[in-house]
Structures are given as structure tokens and as C-alpha cells.
Amino acid sequence: MSATVVHSLWTTAADPISKIDAPKIEYGQLSPTLIILGAAIVGVLVEAFVPRKSRYYAQLFVSVVALCAAFAAVVALAADGYATTKAGIAAMGAIAVDGPALFLQGTILLASMVGLFTFAERRLDPETHGNRVDSFAAQAASVPGSDSERAAVKAGFTTTEVFPLLLFAVAGMLIFPAANDLLTLFVALEVFSLPLYLLCALARRKRLMSQEAAVKYFLLGSFASAFTLFGIALLYGYAGSVSYGTIAQVVDGTISTVDPALADTMGNDALLLIGAAMIVMGLLFKVGAVPFHMWTPDVYQGAPTPVTGFMAAATKVAAFGALLRILYVVLPGLRWDWRPVMWAVAIVTMLGGAIVAITQTDIKRLLAYSSIAHAGFILAGVIATTPDGVSSVLFYLAAYSFVTIGAFAVVTLVRDAGGEATHLSKWAGLGRRSPLVAAVFAVFLLAFAGIPLTSGFAGKFAVFKAAAEGGAAPLVVVGVISSAIAAFFYIRVIVLMFFSEPRPEGPTVAVPSPLTMTAIGVGVAVTLVLGVAPQYFLDLANQAGVFVR
Amino acid sequence: MSFPLLTATAVLPAIGAIATAAVPAARRTAAKWLALLVSIATLALAIAVLIRFAPDGDRYQLTESHAWIADFGVRYELGVDGIGVALLALTALLIPFIILAGWHDADPLETGNKRWRPTQGFFALILAVEAMVIISFEATDVFLFYIFFEAMLIPMYFLIGGFGDRAHAGSDENAAAQRSYAAVKFLLYNLVGGLIMLAAVIGLYVVAGSFSLQEIAEARANGSLHMATNTERWLFLGFFFAFAVKAPLWPLHTWLPNAMGEATAPVAVLITAVVDKVGTFAMLRFCLQLFPEASKWATPAILVLAVISIIYGALLAVGQRDIKRLVAYASISHFGFIIMGIFAMTSQGQSGATLYMVNHGISTAALMLVAGFLISRRGSRLIADYGGVQKVAPVLAGTFLIGGLATLSLPGLAPFVSEFLVLVGTFARYPVIGIIATFGIVLAALYTLVLYQRTMTGPVKPEVSAMPDLRVRELVVVAPLVVLLIFLGVYPKPVTDIVNPAVKSTMSDVHKKDPKPEVEAAK
Fold first, then answer.
1. Given CB atoms, is B440 within the 8 Å cutoff of chain A?
2. Looking at the predicted structure, is the pLDDT value of residue A201 above 80?
3. B75 forms bridges with which residues in the sheet?
4. Model confidence band, residue B521 (pLDDT cutoffs 50, 70, 90)
């Protein structure tokens, strides 16, 4: 770099400062996120000031009220036209308030609400020392197997911190798909990732496994975040801005004013390509696409099951939302470069997830690999690069998240002496012992498999149709083949539940409180309604299918 | 708005299924009666459809059309042509007999478990299958058809896997393993076929922009919708593959003997006489109408596969030691005849094929249900375990013989007419294929008569010496079927009258005319 440029870096743009504009914040348009963030902080204060006995109820109350209020705010914004005609950019260009953002935020909030119910469940684990306990460790800081752990259990401690952690994660997820500049994207990524790392470590049973899962998730997640950050830096070097709109214009060539400080780097295609690849890589990690999926099975298995369900649903929604926005808003000019790569990723994700799932013997790992295969199906819709592609992905995400939370909620019910009985062999003959629970789980599995009259079929059809219309017919064929492979292992679980003889020492099905029942009931209802009469929701997704730039 | 009769025929059994499933565990018998009554009421509705249907009227009658999923271009469109009406009636007719024949098949072995209600489940699933099959015969929207074509696999799967034949050689554990193997094989074969069809369904939408059968067929006829030759062929293959798995056509047939062998006899009838007909029906309705050119292109290959099915199925039937598997292989042979009749592209062939579907349904039901009664008495499916039954149980043996003779297409019984029509229709255009297929009849005589001879004649085996003859309930099942077989054998006109106009329209879809008879010029 020449000395003159360095010099100009110090002196350029130093117009005399007359006044600094106060930042303009559109509180109304940001209200969903602000409500959740505020409630999360209230939750922290509750931990500090409310007596231990009543913390659980206070936290549950705050969380439910916050999620309801935030959802109401999203609906109000959408009804006000912010999803269509009034779509715009808020908070000094940091947040986009448009159809996809509001649709995804609504989905995340509803999924979180259902997830929250499974968090708050306290009837599944047997009472210890006369205290009702949930799925989370008595005291996270106590070493597993130590005296302090025993003391914490005896004292009836429960980790009510999970509620504010959940809310912080939700807040990050709400910002993630709405972020309109790369820095906001990164901040949101960290805001929802850090609470999730913590939540993963908090299992009451099998604590070592849970902590191991959290460490793996944290390490790999940090790598992914670092990649994203590096990519952001490179893109800034290329475009001289972190704003989505500006970068897109630089990519298109409509802006060519060179920031003198970046004269050497701006417009350098190598920076653009590598930077974009790194950001997309970070997002594909969160989505769980092959080859960035390695964390998924371990984390899904080790994390407390309510957390797994919440994470599998909400994280995927948020991450796909962000991915859509990056690809459709920032990098549409680059689509001839990223489409072939995403084709390859989608194909290996669909096939890889489906094939590896066949050999799994643990129900949570099986669902983890199945979620990978589903990420591949969704990617097929992402690749379509048409408005139909966006709306089909939105619909798929909504359909998928409720099936997922419901399925993991059922997993929490099947228990033996060691807690949840997740090994598949223990599920043998469940249909004999508890026909209703087995039938509900079968509905979820059939939805995962994409059998008609379930939401899974409607979603799969929407995505494949968009892909075929977008000229990706081979992807549809691969998708259909991996659906067939995937059907095999879903069916295998059904066979096991219904056609195998129950084992004498098999697990029992715990009777849950209305909380988990509601979670499962909502899951089944959404699965069937979206399967039989999806039109209303498809319309919604269609209206929400246009990004603002 | 007129009463939606077609919807009612499907909705009634669907509601019946839910109601039956909801009957409390202790009221098993009530569940059975409820299911039976619902199936009879459905039959009444089907008869109403038959009466309202005017064979010489519009091609699709009693049509209903409502918006459903506008976003996918899907409408809820129903309508029946002569072929659909015939199969609708067949389905509605057979279900009460299937329910009655399976009256005790799902009685729980263990009575301690209050929550386990297999009987309710069994009859509810049968009604669910009926609802889905009926709606696939009525759907004139490709997507609507596809949904139920796929969805019916699930109740079928539970029927096969959950309620196996209790007469099984070997231990219980072995039986359960074989049964779930058969159920999984059934499901995977059909699911793979269905998913490949899904790709073709999506492709069809991308090409045609609609799922309405009539719209697409019209657009194709008046030339406003042009399909590239290769596109049409790929789409045709996607559809045909699914239907050929379902039908089943050699070499995609291997799931059928397992499924029919392991399922209870009534469920086996449900598979082969009702559900599989959707496959052959769909070939006529969807393959020929949507892809006429590709159908003609594929005809030679399909005819060869059909002939292989006929001969191969018959040969394997001859070699079977298990009564139910024998019937299964005989069915494969018969499905070969049906597919051959469809793709012979002559009006005799296609009328014969449609008639064949009806007659095969009735004759297989008769044979298989009597075989089921026989098997339930002795507790074994092996032919070698029987002998001299006609001396002990003459009525059982007699009805078994009539069912068997119908299967081998004896003149005077219904299947003869259809088989004759199919062969004539094929011979007119493809004489060599026709000649080879005729050997299938010879083999049919071999496997049925040998089966009868080994089980029913000869010295009475000690194990069967105390075998009771058919009970009243069983007679109620068999007698009407036998009467129908004889009636339609002597006087098939009622069915052909309904079917023929529909066949004529299908033929015009593929732009085929019957070959003119050639008279060799006198020298």
C-alpha cells in the first residue's frame, strides 16, 4: 500500500462536523425483537431477585407473555402491510422488515412457544426428594457425580435460567433472518448461538454426554462463526460496505465509486468469491448441511431433548432465513457462481443424510440425520432462485419445525430407569403398550417421510415444484430418490413400534403435564392441517415471498 | 347444487373408519357390525352411482369440482367414466364380503391389555382403504389421484404387518418377522414407485401448468399443449413405473406373493382384488390419456413384459407349495392379461381388460376367501397338509372348485368372457403375443386343477377328518360371489354396456382404430 493512500486514509472525508444526526429507530417495526429482549432481561432479574420457590412460575409467565406479545406484534405488523406494501428497512439500515422476515419471525415465535412448553415440563422425571424437576441439571456449575451435585439435587434446585437463555436465543433468531447488514448478521448469530451452547450442556441425566455435546457444538460453532466473520471482512474489503443493498449494487456494478481507503481491494473478485463462500459456509453450518453437518448427530443426541427439539426447529428456520436473504439479496448477481456449488451441497446433503440415517440405532441421532436430509430438501427450494422458491422454503420451514418439535416431545415421554430411552431397540412394541403415543409418533414419522395428507408432503411438493420450475429437474430426481431412502428408516421405526413384540423390561411412557400434551397436540394438528388444507398458509408464504433491498 | 354423490361414496367409509376406530375396547362386536353396516351403506351409494350413470352420456359424469390448493394448481375434481363406475362398484361390492370373511381375524389373543384394540383397528383400516381406493377411481385431477394413490399404502401396510395370518408354519417370532418383512417390502416397493411418479407429476405440472385430466387431455387433443417427444416419454415412464409396481407387472411383482402369503385371506383379497386394480385402472385413465404418443411408443416393450408376467406367474403358481402364494402368482399371471389387454390398443382388448379387472376381483375373492376358510380350519397354508377335504366338507370343496374354475377361465364363468376378449383383441394386432399368452390358460388349468386335486380329492388325511363344513357366515360370503361369477359368465352385457363407451373414448385419445379384418383374396 502506498504512503499516499495511507495518508489519505487519515485525512479523507474529514468534513467539518456541524451536527451528528441522532440514530432513527423504528421501535414499532422492531417491537417483536425488543419485546423478547426485554423479557429476557426481566428473566435475568427474576433469577436475581425472586425467591427460588416461585422462580419457575415467574419465568414461565414472563416467557409465555413475551412470546405471545411478540407474536401479536408480528401479526400486527403483517396486518399493517409491513410484509408487502410497507416493507422497508429499519434501524438505520440494520434490520429489514419485510415479508420473509415477518413470516420467519412468526414461525420462530410459534415454534419457540411450543418448544417452551417442553422446556417447562416437570412431570416426566420422577420426583427427587419431593421436588418436581425438569429435564435440566439441578445446578449447572456442579461437577457431575460430585457432592455438590448431590446437594443441589437434594435441595431441589432447578435451572430456571433456561427460560431467559431461551428468550435470548429467540431474540437472536428473530434478528438473524431480518439482518440487513453483515455486522447485524454476525451479532445475531452470536446472540442466538451462545445461549444454545449453554442450553446444550444442561441435561439432568447423562450430564457428561451433554457437556461433551456442548463443547463440540461450541468449538465447531466458533470455527463457523470465525469463518463467517472473516468472510464479512473480505466482503467489506470488496464492497466498502457491510450493507446488503450496497454490496449487491457493487456486485451488479451499479456502484463504482471507490472508497479511496480501499482502492486496492475494492472490486477484487477473489475477495468477493472467497468472502461470500465463507459467509455461506457459516450459514450452512448452522443449517446442518453436508459437509458442515458433523456436529449435528452428537449435539442432537447429547443435548437435553427439549433443547434438541427447539434447536432443530428454530435454528433451522432462522439460519435458512438468513441464507435466503444472503443469496437472494446480496448475491443474486453471483448466482451463476453459487448455484453449481449449492447444487452439489444440496445433493450430498440429501443423499448423505438419508443414507447415514439408515444405520442409526439411537432415535435422537436418527432424527438428527433426518434433519440433515431435510436441510437438503430445503436447499433444493433455495436453489430455485424464483419467488416460488422463497415461498416454498418458507412453507417447508413452517411445516417442518412443528413436526420436529412434536417428534422430540414424544421422545421425552418414552422413559426407563435411566431417563429417556432413546435406543431404538427399547422402542420395540411401543404400539402395543401405548397405542396413542406410538400413533402420534407414527404421524410425525410419516410427515418426515413426506406421505400425502401430512404437512411433510405439501412442503416437499412445494419445494420440488419450485426446483423443477427453476430448472433444477435433476435435483428433484435426487430428492425423490433420497426420499425413498429416507422412507426406509422412518418405516423401520414404525415397524419396530407396531409389529415387534414388546420387551418385558422395556420403557414406560410417562404421562406428561398439559404443557407437553399441548406441544404434541399442536404438532399433530399443524401436521394434519398443513397436509390437508395448506392453501391458506401457502398464500401467506406467497405474499411473504419478496425481499426488501 | 346437486348432492355430491361421488364424494359421499368416499366420505362415508372414511367417517366409518374413524367411528369404528373410536369404539371402546370392550365393544368389539359393535365395531364389527358398525364396519359392516358402513360398507353396506357404501355399496348402496355405489349402486345409486350406477343407476345415475348414463352409459351413453358424457364421458365424465356426476362431476364435482372445487378449489383446493390453488397454489399447486390442484382442484378437488371428481368424475366417473364407465371404467371408473365399474371398478367403484366392484370395490363397494367386495368390501362387505371382506369384512364378513375377516370377522374373527382380528380378535385379540391377549385380553388383559385394555388399550390394545386390534379388532377396531383392523376394520377401521379396511374402511380407510376402501375410502382411498374409491376416491382414486373418481379423481380426475392428477394430484388428487396421486395423494390417495400414495396414502392408501399406509393403512394397507398396517393391515399386512399388523394382522398376519395365524396359520403359519414355524414359531410365532418367525411369523412376526416374515410378516413385517412382507409389509415393509410392500411399502417400499410401492413407495419407491410412488415417489418416482411424484417426480413425473411435478414434471407434468411444469410442462402442462395444470393437473386437471380433462384440461390436459383437451389441450393435447387440440394441439395447444405440445410436449417434446422425450419429455412425454420420461413422464410416461414415471407414471407407468408406479402403476406397474402396483399392478404388479413382472419384474416389479415380487412384493405381491410375500404380502398375500403373510396377510390374512381377506386382506390378501383386498390387496389383489381392490388395491391393485388402481394400478391397471390408472394405466387406462392416466397413461393413455395424458401420454398417448408415448404409450404407443412403449407398447411393444410393455406387451412383452405382460406376456412374461402371464407365463412366469403361471409357471411359478404351478410350483407353489403354499396355497396363498399360489393364488398370488396366479394373480400376477392375470394382471399380465389385463395389462396386455390395455396396451393391445384395440377396443376388444380394452373392454376385455376392464371386464377382466371386475371378474378377476370377484373370482379371486371367491377362491381366496374359501382358501382362507380352509386354512383357518387346519392351521396350515401348505398344500401337502390337505387331502380328501371334499369328503368331509363338500360345500367348501365345491365353492373352492368354482372359484378355481373361474380362475382358469372356464367357459360359462365370468372370467372366460374377459380373457377371451383380451386374447381376441391382442390377436387382432399382435398375433404372436396373443399365441404365447394363450399358453397361460393351459398353465392356469394345470395349477388350479392340481391344487384342487391335492387338497380336496384322494384319501382323507387324519388332520382334516374332523373339519367342519362352511358355516352360515362363510356361506353368506361365498354364495353371492359364486352367483355373480355364473351370472356374469352367461350374461356379461350389463358390465360391457357400461364399459364400452368409455373404452371407445380412450381409444380415440390414443388415435387408434381397431384393425380391419383382413380377408385373403380368393385366388
1. no
2. yes
3. B67
4. low
